[in-house]
Amino acid sequence: MTDAVELTEAEAEAQVIAKQNDQFRKTWGADFTIPGKIVVTQSVACLSAGAQVQIMRAVQAFDTFTEDNDPYGDHSFGAFEIECAGETVKLFWKIDLYDRAYKYGSEAPADTSETRRVLTILQRHEY
C-alpha cells in the first residue's frame, strides 16, 4: 500500500513539473516565476535566422507528448523537424532541472524557488 501512495505522490509531482516545464517552454523563459535558461548547441546556432524562428515556434507549440517520449509525464523532452534551405532538419529539445547554482540536479524539482531549468535545443545527431 505504501508503494501506491508513493506512486501517487510521484505522479502528482510529475504533473506539477509538467505544468512548470510547459509554462517555461511556451513563454520561452519569459515567465520569471519559473527561472531558467535556454541554450542551443553550436550546430543549431549556425542555422539561419529563419530556421531559428521556426525552432522557437515549434518548441513553444509542441504538444505531442506520448508514453514513448514522456514516460515520466513531466514534459521534459520533445522531437520535431523544421525545413531549412530545402532540407529537413531533425531536432530535439529537453529540459533539465538543476539547483539554484546550476551545478547539481535539483533536490526539490517541483519547487520553483529551488529549481532552475535549462532548456536545450540540439540536432538529433548530437544526442
TrEMBL record:
<dbReference type="Pfam" id="PF12599">
    <property type="entry name" value="DUF3768"/>
</dbReference>
<dbReference type="InterPro" id="IPR022243">
    <property type="entry name" value="DUF3768"/>
</dbReference>
<protein>
    <recommendedName>
        <fullName>DUF3768 domain-containing protein</fullName>
    </recommendedName>
</protein>
